[in-house]
Amino acid sequence: GSGLGLATAYRAIRDWGGDVAVDSPLNAGTTFRIQIPVWDGPPPEKQSQPNGDVDEHAGRRILIAEDEGIVAMVLEDCVRQLGYHPDFIDRGDLALERLRSGRYRVAVLDLGLPGVSGDEVARLAKLEQSLTLVLMTGWSLAPTDPRLASFDLALQKLFDAREAEAMILRAIEMEAQTGKPETPDSIMSDS
Questions:
Q1: What is the pLDDT of residues 81-110, one digit of tens each?
Q2: What tens digit of pLDDT does each residue of 150-163 get?
Q3: 3-state secondary structure of 63
Q4: What angle in degrees, to the nearest 10, is found between the helix axes of 69-81 and 161-178?
Q5: Inter-axis angle of helices 69-81 and 4-15, to 10 degrees?
Q6: Has this prediction a pTM greater than 0.70?
C-alpha cells in the first residue's frame, strides 16, 4: 500500500493523546505498541450546534494532497505546529473535490498524485476560486515548465520539517496579506 493506513492510525492515536512505538529487528517481524490514555470521567456531552454544518476549524484548514504516508505525517506535524488543522487526501480527483468545497484557502499538492495530477488539480481549482497553492515534488522542473503555472510556491522533495513548516507559513502569510495569492516570477529555484 501507500503507507497512508499507518499514517492515519498514527494521526488518530496522537489526536487521542496516545503514542505509537515501533520495534522492527532485522528478519524478526515488526511490533507496534500503542498507548492510549484511559478516560475515567463521564461521557462527554455532545455540543449542540444551531447549524450542523458549522466547521470548528473554519479558516484554519490546510489541504495536503500527498500519496506517500511518511511525507503526509511530516506535513501534518508542520501544519499542527503552526496552529492549523491539516486535512489529508491521497488522490488528485478527491483533492479537487475537497478544494471545491470552499473550506480551504491554502493547499499543498504533490505533483504526481494518482487520479488527477497535482498541476491539473491546481489549474482547475484556481479557475473557480482564489487559493494559495504550494507545489510539492521530487521531480526536477525547469522554471518555465507549464506545470508550475497555477502554483504560488514550491517545496522540493527531499525536505526536512523546518523547510516544510517555513514554506507552509509563507503560504499562510501570502493568503492573509491579500486574500489573494501573488504569483512570484519564479517558484522553482535552480538548486
A1: 888 989 988 999 999 999 999 889 899 999
A2: 999 988 888 888 88
A3: strand
A4: 50
A5: 30
A6: no
* Distance of alpha carbon 94 from alpha carbon 114, whole angstroms: 10
Backbone angles phi, psi at 8, to 5 degrees: -65, -45
Q: For 78-102, give one letter per residue: b (16+ CB within 10 A) or e.
A: bbeeeebebbbbbbbebbbebbeee
pLDDT of the residue at 53: 53
Q: Which three cell numbers stand for residue 42?
A: 463521564
**Strand ranges inside the chain, DSSP E:** 19-23, 31-35, 61-65, 85-89, 106-110, 132-137, 153-156
Helix axes 92-100, 118-128, angle to 10 degrees: 20
Q: What is the rounded distance in angstroms from the CA atom of residue 22 to the CA atom of residue 13? A: 14
Mean pLDDT of 131-136: 91
DSSP state of 38: P
